Amino acid sequence: MEPRFACTACGKCCHGLLPLTLTDAVAHAVRFPLALVWTVVRSNAKSYDLATRLGTSVRLPNRKTVAVLIQPSAYLPNHFPCPALQPDNLCGIHSDKPSRCRTMPFYPYREEKDQADLLVPRKGWECDVSAEAPVVYRNHAILDRTNFDRERAELLEQAPVMRTYADYVLKYMPWIVNDLAKMAAAPAGGKLVTSLSSFLTATRRTDARELAAAQAPLMQAMAERTRTDPALADLHKNYAGWAKEMERLAQRP
Ligand code: SF4
Ligand code: SF4
């Protein structure tokens, strides 16, 4: 049977971490609290070769090499709605929404031939996969590939920048290699988060001050929203620390 899919705009997937292209992260810096999210892809994974092209390769202390994706992301607790999600569950920035949202449910960090299981809605999601929904994927190929191709092209274009950032982090924060090794060894993998300020410093962006000025109040607001929940203590610590970093960066001459 051919996979069918239509979005019913239930808003259920508009919660938690949202990976962005670098272009989208910059364009939405006044809206999303941003961080860099690192994910290890082991050498036996289907998407390993693609991950080495979109991310970077890291040699671990045990001499194994893994691919590491570094995704600029809207950094939100899993159950927090996207700031652009309206009370009616529609996207408040529909005509301007990020590539990641446009390409859903496909995911250009995976090879195109390996997208079929993304068309099975996760528990609680209300995507229409009935016989009335349009066929969107046939013979391991995406039928309307405009958004997928655009997002993939942006990811390939930004890859050298992400590699520059990875080199910086691994040089100045060498303990991160050990964290990556732990993630590579853990059955469930894991994610590592680094700050936008480290990215802005490493890549010497000329718009660093403007981006920091946009981020400072968002980080402060998130620090406040996560202040009293013990389950969010680690995120709260990040938001509070990054708010100060962003304030300092925004005021730099
Ligand atoms: S930008 Fe719009 S579509 Fe994307 S996660 Fe937010 S509310 Fe959902
Ligand atoms: S969960 Fe499915 S139906 Fe709901 S907004 Fe996301 S893609 Fe659309």
Automatic annotation (TrEMBL):
InterPro entries in alphabetical order: Puta_zinc/iron-chelating_dom
One Pfam family it belongs to: CxxCxxCC
Name recorded for this polypeptide: YkgJ family cysteine cluster protein
Organism: Azospirillum brasilense
